[in-house]
Amino acid sequence: MNNYQQRGFFANVDWVTILLYLALCVIGWFNIHAAVYDENNPSLIDSSTQYGKQFIFIITGLVIGTVILLLESRFLSSLAPAMYVVTVLLLMVVLVAGHKVGGNQAWIDMGGGFRLQPSEFAKFATCLLLARYLSGTNVKVTDPVSFLIAGGIIFLPMLLIKLQPDDGSTLVFCSLIFVLYREGLSPYFLIVGGLLVTLFITSLIFNSWYVVIAIAIVATLIVLSIKRNRPLVFKIIIGAIISMAFVFAVKPLYNKGLKDHQRKRIDVVLGLTQDKKHVGYNQNQSKIAIGSGGLWGKGYLQGTQTKYAFVPEQSTDFIFCTIGEEWGFAGSVVVMGLYLFLLLRIILIAERQRAPFSRIYGYGVASIIFCHVLINIAMAIGLMPVIGIPLPFISYGGSSLWSFTILLFILLKLDSNRMGIIYA
Amino acid sequence: MNSFFERRYVVAGIFIAFILVLLGRLFYIQVVDDRYVAYASQNVVRKMIQYPARGPILDRNGKVMVQNEPVYDIMVIPKQVTAFDTVEFCKLLSIDRAGYDKRMIKARKYSPYRASVFEKQLTAELYAAFQERLSEFPGFFPQQRPVRTYPDSAAAQFLGYIGEVTDPMIKKSGGYYSPGDYVGITGVERSYEPVLRGQRGVENWMVDSRNVRKGSYANGAFDTSAVAGERLVSSLDMNIQKFGEALMRNKVGSIVAIEPSTGEILCFVSSPTYDPNLLVGKERGNNAAKLYKDPYKPFFTRPVQALYPPGSSFKPLDALIAMQEGMINPQSVYVCPGYYTSGNRRIKCFHGEVHGPVNLTQAIAHSCNGYFDMVFEKLVNKYGARNIDTGYGAWRQNVMKFGLGTRLDLDLPSEGRGLLPKATFYDKLYKKGGWRSSTVISLGIGQGEMLATPLQLANIEAVIANRGYFYKPHLIKSIGDKQVIKHEYTVRNYVGVDSAYFKPAIDGMQQVVDQGTAYGSKIPGIIMCGKTGTAEVKNKNDNSVFVAFAPRDNPKIAIAVVVENSGQGATWAAPIASFIVEKYLTGKISKRSSGIYPEYYMNANLLPPPVLSAADKRQLKLDSLKKTQADSVNKLKLKAASNNKPTDSPRVNKATAMLPKRKDNE
């Protein structure tokens, strides 16, 4: 059974995933170079520049990945609670003694110009603990107590991150609902979640009364088509009434529950305000940069919008601008294709695990990467309000790159050991 | 594997769906919607217009009439301004603190990162002082800008002026001009605007998000360099132009001199005039306002816009046309009893002089009204007295060939066409068939409804000097280094009178100067042929008119001089014309047998009382109502103004203003 292990540590590693990982890292590095390119100082490796630093981060990331592959799988599983506790503690420390960058108190100074972002590490720590908990015997998501505990595991770091306040990372934790769904959570959670988002957006754009009338019409049509099933009719009617109440609650919630800058960002995306100078500036410039790329792009280092600093945060949250501008739609397709390939590969890996722990963890990895990609790119092309969140493996930054590396390589480690039995 | 194995497809499906949505949106903004490409170049590319130097204008001898001189604007980039000694700064620019703040706010409003004008057009002294201490004022720098300068301060109405474009001009130009551009507003500056302005260049700059220049776009592939405006050589002779302006000082009127063999205008005086340099620089606005208020209207281009009755200067035309039409011959005699009877009208000769029997030459020499009324009546009654419409129409057509009542297409804006009414005009006035030759008889001696510009008068002399044709008068001799001459200026325009008929008329005109009305203006050694005119003006002094050309053979100059409301043609216009002619032909003024000399005419003040516009009068009234105490003072002032006629008022009938009169016949 353990023939594989005898052939070496890397024999069972999923090389396809590693290649995808490396491809994304290299694409990231080149585009960071382009984003901060200085015509007067064109060297590629210079530790004082962002691309120089990112090079170091990538190398370090590979070292971290290798170390993880050398670890014992059992070790990872048993260490999960400890890691979770440490991260939660760090998240608390950061709230008290953190370093502020761009309004978010999310960083811990490590000295030497390097800073650590505990929220990045909270992602895999939470995934690990969630996997550990849900893979336990007699734990079923459909059971309310288990559901609440699982929810609590997700909610605690989420709350601490929200207090920083880092909206992007907070949202990322929501994506773990996919994990719960895969493990048996009622699809109603997804449906209701999707419905609420739709209602929220439509209520903001249209007059509440129109939305209410629309709900009434849709509900009536559904009821008429399935009138034989009485309990379902009843459910739909109740649902419609709750939806209508929600519609009327949206505006007050929106006006009171959100902060001014958040509201403005949403208004810009929904086209409720035309503000290209201030709140909408970043997004508008980002759209211009990406949109001006055309089919084939302007070529490497030829992107004027990014080179001349029209797009802010262009090496981190808006790194996709450089890709879109210099590599065009072709480049966009390649990058999006790589991500989709990676996500599907992760699902495939997750599903081939014998151990529920590994599978659950795999879905956590996929959900988190998906959520990052979706929010980051949707934001860059004006489909979502501006939310600061890095593009996995591509955006500049050590914390982000390392945390994604750890997240992914833990899965690879678990996968390489999939034929073994995990003792939880 | 567990019971929810199928859900992997749902999750994968959701991932795929969202990624496809993102790709769809990316496809839309990157490939379908090309607005973003345009936005991107708007972001990055700045079209910097390169202004060409405006073309200079030279006189016919190559002397500069107008050229460009650098002035300095002080520019500021607000973001680069750091603390400095504002008191000292304001002192250097001679502005106050409030003015400083106002300018800075304006500049910051325009852009904190881009340069905008802080102070326009520093004088050389201010600039020198500022330049020395420039380093003390970070964020400020001087920018050179060319302005027009006029070394001789002359020929203002001819040159015209430039000014900022108006909104209608911008619209009309189809995007060529943008606000703040300077264009020719009047004069040659306007009529030759497309040539003078040159060709603009464009530099495409790449700028970053702070508008800092980062390099040139596409390595300058789309850049064009500015091409300087063409140099114009004008036909004017600056020597006689300045001399003419001096002679016309404190007089209202104009001088137009034409070179008959080319149509080139040698002298183009409109008086009163102004110093064109007043309309350049910081004080431009104030000066322009003052000039606009001037009751003598210095912006009025009298040589082409003022309309005068030609008076007796028209008479040679009658004779020429009548000879061509075969109505008279040079020997035809009219016995002048001192008047002419037409129908029941009696038109007297000047001062009731009796000329006795006169032939054509004598009639011109003595300016016999009777003779020319007779000629005119013959012409218009050629087809019978009842068919005056036809006869008059034919006469009018013949006169128009000389350029009267029609525009000569001078290369200057707003040329007047004069007045030469159609027969239908009289039909309307007197009903059809209700008028006879006697009704319009004054036209025969250049009075009545006939009005001409000084340019038209001078052009008629050019026709006579050429014995039957003229070149279109023009102010610009040639364009550019290649000395391009417009084709239309090289074509002879014949007036339909055979050259043979000119001799008797020219004989008469020579006698006018040799022994006739203008004998006082005879130039030693030069045969000048001329004709005085004293055109009556309602309720005012007569206009003094003199037209001439010289020398008689191979004429070099044809001239018309009008001095408004000053008296007889011989008194003022003829001497002035003779000085111009002599100065042009010989370059100096010789001692005249009549003893006249130019300085006398230069110093004479013949300004008529200012004509106050209705608005001015209202203002005066308002003022007087406001200040009742000052009322009497105001009245006194008004009175003084109306009495402010030239102290030197020798408006007596003299052959020249300086000399006792010999003959009264004009």
UniProtKB/TrEMBL annotation, chain A:
Protein topology in the membrane: Multi-pass membrane protein
Leader sequence residues: none
Pfam families: FTSW_RODA_SPOVE
Glycosyltransferase found in the keyword field: yes
Key words, A-Z: Cell membrane, Cell shape, Cell wall biogenesis/degradation, Glycosyltransferase, Membrane, Peptidoglycan synthesis, Transferase, Transmembrane, Transmembrane helix
Bilayer-spanning residue ranges: 12-32, 52-71, 78-97, 145-163, 184-202, 208-226, 233-254, 327-348, 360-387, 393-412
Record keyword NAD present: no
GO cellular component, one term: plasma membrane
Protein's cellular compartments: Membrane
GO biological process: cell division; cell wall organization; peptidoglycan biosynthetic process; regulation of cell shape
Gene Ontology MF terms in the entry: glycosyltransferase activity; lipid-linked peptidoglycan transporter activity
Family annotation (NCBIfam families): rodA_shape, RodA_shape
Family matches, as PANTHER family: CELL CYCLE PROTEIN, PEPTIDOGLYCAN GLYCOSYLTRANSFERASE MRDB
Protein name per Swiss-Prot or TrEMBL: Cell wall polymerase
Organism: Mucilaginibacter pedocola
Species lineage: Bacteria, Pseudomonadati, Bacteroidota, Sphingobacteriia, Sphingobacteriales
TrEMBL record, chain B:
Residues spanning the membrane: 9-28
Cross-referenced InterPro entries: Beta-lactam/transpept, Beta-lactam/transpept-like, PBP_dimer, PBP_dimer_sf, PCN-bd_Tpept, Penicillin-binding_protein_2
Subcellular location: Cell membrane; Membrane
Membrane topology (UniProt): Single-pass membrane protein
Alphabetic keyword roster: Carboxypeptidase, Cell inner membrane, Cell membrane, Cell shape, Cell wall biogenesis/degradation, Hydrolase, Membrane, Peptidoglycan synthesis, Protease, Transmembrane, Transmembrane helix
Chief localisation class: membrane
Pfam families, per database record: PBP_dimer, Transpeptidase
GO cellular component: plasma membrane
Entry GO MF terms: penicillin binding; peptidoglycan L,D-transpeptidase activity; serine-type D-Ala-D-Ala carboxypeptidase activity
Protein name: Penicillin-binding protein 2
